[in-house]
Amino acid sequence: MLLTFGIKTASMRILTLLFCFLAFISNAQNQKPFSGKLVYSIQIQDTSLRKMIPMKHMLIFTNDTLIRIENETEQLGIQVMIKHLVLNKSYLLLQTPTGKYAIQTDHGTSKIDTFPYSFKKKWGKTVICGKKANKLVVKNKNFPNDLVFYYYKNTSVKYLNSHGNFPGLLVKYYLPSADGIYEYTLIEQEELVPPKDAFGIPSDFKKVSFDDFMNEILKKQTETPIKLE
């Protein structure tokens, strides 16, 4: 009798593990490759600050192997990152007063911080950019309260680069900054073949490592004479 009970218990555990494994495989298989353009609006969550901090946009091109992410910044203008999703390497294109640089990063060898989010899937959906999006309740030590994120379960989160642990492409989410918490919302999604030059490094950009970039900037700063008034 005890032997029979033990066999049944073990069988149930095996079936549970098998079910979870099949559910994981099914979710991965349902995430279809995407080639095209994504556009997100970026605005400060605190509505009282929106007059002082205007809305910005983030543009993403991908062919499912490469991504190009363009962000608007006040200090450096348009900031561009080009990343190879398979090789896990990227270039950050920066235009500075001292020159144009393509800063190389190998994400496979760089230090990876602990994933700062914890989340739970919740019942409830909303329509974002014409498609149904699923709900997540998200915690982060930089958020004073839990926040609600939404995602497309059939599209991979990899196209956002820095959010690899979420179950699908985030289409409404929040990021902390020195100014406060910013809200990112998908406002355009289009399947297309990206422009041929979207993933190329312009010839007038100098390829450097991050350390070489910092050394070169510091060197040029010391070489620049200080003007006395």
Describe this structure in words.
By secondary structure, the protein is an alpha+beta fold. The chain is built from 2 helices and 12 strands. The chain has a 12-stranded mixed sheet with strand order 7-8-9-10-11-1-2-3-4-5-6-12. Strand 10 (169-176) and strand 11 form a beta hairpin. The longest helix is centred in the N-terminal third of the chain and has 29 residues, at 2-30. The protein is globular. Mean pLDDT is 83; it is low at 1-28.
List the helices and strands and how they pair.
Blueprint lengths: L1 H29 L5 E9 L11 E7 L3 E8 L3 E8 L4 E8 L2 E8 L10 E12 L2 E10 L6 E6 L16 E8 L4 E11 L14 E4 H14 L6
Parallel strand pairs: 6-12
Antiparallel strand pairs: 1-2, 1-11, 2-3, 3-4, 4-5, 5-6, 7-8, 8-9, 9-10, 10-11
Strand content: 35-45%
Q: What helical percentage do the residues reach?
A: 10-25%
Number of helices: 2
Rg computed from alpha carbons, rounded to a whole number of angstroms: 22 Å
Largest sheet: 12 strands, mixed
What is the straight-line distance between the termini?
96 Å
What's the overall geometry?
Answer: globular
Q: Give the neighbour order of strands across the main sheet.
A: 7-8-9-10-11-1-2-3-4-5-6-12
Spell the H/E element sequence. HEEEEEEEEEEEEH
Unreliable spans are: 1-28
Average pLDDT rating: 83
How many strands?
A: 12
Q: What would you call the structural class?
A: alpha+beta
